[in-house]
């Protein structure tokens, strides 16, 4: 059965209304047979004013078929929704439609093969909150 290791987690870009964050991870087949890995990217909001899940799946991608000992870098792109929540109480004076809210603060980005896997992680900070419909 193939086994995979993840390393070299890198972020490029910044969180914003009109920008994206690219999450790059190196996947290496450390098993004895060829295989593909599904890299799952989770986001954890470390300072939300609301109770949020410990981590939320925000993207995933599959590696190409990797021979034993071979590696490749895969990329998942996260948009503003990956760092936000929908607040149906927000938007007072807007007929209570609610708003998407991205709160300023620290976020942890995790990459793993499964939700149970601790994986590897790094951090990113949203410097200023923003909202949108």
Summarize, please.
By secondary structure, the chain is mostly beta strands.
Annotation keywords:
Immunoglobulin-like; 133 residues; four-stranded antiparallel β-sheet; three-stranded antiparallel β-sheet; mainly beta; 54% strand; single chain
Mean of the pLDDT scores?
94
Q: What share of residues are in beta strands?
A: over 45%
The number of distinct structural domains comes to 1
Q: Poorly predicted ranges (pLDDT <50, ≥5 residues)?
A: none
What does the largest sheet look like? Answer: 4 strands, antiparallel
Quaternary status:
single chain
Protein name: beta-glucosidase
Enzyme class: hydrolase
Keywords: Glycosidase, Hydrolase
Catalytic activity: Hydrolysis of terminal, non-reducing beta-D-glucosyl residues with release of beta-D-glucose
